[in-house]
Amino acid sequence: MGSLFLKLFLWLWLTGIIIAGAFVVSWHHWAPASSLPSQAELEQVAEEISNLYAEEGGWGAVHGYLRSLSRDQKLRFVLLGQDELATRGMQRRMLRGLSQQDREILLDTAEDRGRLNGMLYKRVVVDFAGAHDFYLIALHPVEGLGGLPVWLRAVIALAVTGGLAGGLAAYLSRPLRRLRRASQALASGDLHARVPVVERGGDEIAALGRDFNAMAERLESLVEAQNRLLRDISHELRSPLSRLQVALELARRETSGDSNALAKMENDIERMDQLIGQLLTLARLESGAGASNMESVDLHELIGQVCEDAQFEAQASGCNVLKEDGPHLQITGDRHLLRSALENVLRNALRYTPAGGVINVAWQRDQDGIWVSVIDSGPGVSEERLNDLFEPFVRLSAARERDSGSCGLGLAIVRRAVQAHGGSVAAHNRPQGGLEVRFWLPLKGPAS
């Protein structure tokens, strides 16, 4: 049974067989006259008791014959009429379950067959040599499901068919639900997500699960190779960069006077050092070794320190950093990563805020976490490129990138650092101008 089509076919076929069988069984139990004699048989009994009455000239032989037909059987034959003498000699056993009201109903009803108080009945008129208004009535108790109320039979039928349908739906949808959960985990960054499937055989869903696992393994290997390349390059560049810094310091000591070439070289070395540091941080976050040193962090104090440091850089470019007086909060997180995220957001805002501009930093608490907002006075970003703002090495627009010295890693580190804490980050253009970067962090740290 390796094909999904074959499974569907067999399940539906089995369901059809069960439904058909249930219909046959229910019809057998619910058919109103299935346990009663046929009309011809009942008329034959009526003719026989009519002849007995004519030959014997009394009711005794008639009652005895009806008792013999009803002995040790669920099927009973009773004789009812307007003349009480005709039924007075009837044994109690033959009239059990028939009240006086039931007898009157059987005599007065226009239906010659039907159901009455849990009994199926069928009647014919008996001719006793001119004595009219006599009925021979065959009675049989309702058995099986037919004895249940209609609403209860409907509930049973719904429960049985619903159980079959539920089993079928659960059986067919279980592997799809597993595949969906694995896809969601992979999309959220869990590169180890796999679908439990058999290595060979199975139906189309099992084959799809194997294809998904192969894709996930390929993605994991590619991402791991990329991160390993970033780490290796960064470490390899660190050593010659350190030697350049030492050589630059020695050259400065040996050179008399002011040297613009040495100053430019020092600036380039510092930028390369920052780039390598960012590459190492990004590679560490991409590898999943993110928020590892969790501790209680005073967010008010941390934001104050970062804003104070950023103010020195702002003064050099002729702009200003304004920090609102937000709430004093303790947050569980990695202090180094949180500081790196705040510094990169502020450094990005400083890079694109013109002289005389203002950068506003604000934060507020919601039910489960805290929102941090940084607003610059720069040119903003085109709407279609806002989602690319947090991707590494992405160059957006000439207005924001010209002479900025940016390599496109700062906001990528921000997103990875915030996600490592179980938070989220987004950016949008403000109607009055400027870009707002806003991220949310849970107060209790990432969920385990």
List keywords for this structure.
single chain; 448 residues; alpha+beta; Beta-Lactamase; Helix Hairpins; 4 domains; 13 helices; 54% helix; rod-shaped
What does this structure look like?
There is one protein chain. This protein has 448 residues and is α+β, with helices and mostly antiparallel strands. The chain has helices at residues 4-30, 39-56, 60-70, 85-88, 92-95, 100-108, 150-187, 204-254, 260-286, 299-317, 335-352, 398-401, 410-420; strands spanning 76-81, 113-116, 119-125, 134-141, 294-298, 320-323, 330-334, 358-365, 369-375, 424-429, 435-442. The chain has a 5-stranded mixed beta sheet with strand order 6-8-9-11-10. A 4-stranded antiparallel beta sheet has the order 1-4-3-2, with helices on both faces. Helix 11 (335-352) packs antiparallel against helix 13 (410-420). The longest helix has 51 residues, at 204-254. The model is unreliable at 398-403 (pLDDT under 50).
CATH class of the largest domain: Alpha Beta
Helix fraction by DSSP (H/I, runs of at least 4): 40-55%
CATH architecture of the largest domain: 2-Layer Sandwich
What's the main sheet like?
A: 5 strands, mixed
Which percent range describes the beta-strand content? 15-25%
Strand order of the largest sheet: 6-8-9-11-10
What fold name stands as the CATH topology of the largest domain? Heat Shock Protein 90
Count of separate structural domains:
4
Give, in order, the helices and strands.
Answer: HHHEHHHEEEHHHEHEEHEEHHEE
Structural class: alpha+beta
How would you state the average pLDDT, rounded?
Answer: 76
Which parts are unreliable, with pLDDT below 50 for 5 consecutive residues or more? 398-403
Superfamily (CATH H level) name of the largest domain: Histidine kinase-like ATPase, C-terminal domain
Total strands: the figure is: 11
Number of helices: 13
**Rg over CA atoms:** 46 Å
Shape: rod-shaped
Q: Kindly, what is the distance between the CA atoms of the first and last residues, rounded to a whole number of angstroms?
A: 40 Å
Transmembrane segments: 9-30, 150-172
GO cellular component, one term: plasma membrane
Membrane topology: Multi-pass membrane protein
Catalytic activity: ATP + protein L-histidine = ADP + protein N-phospho-L-histidine
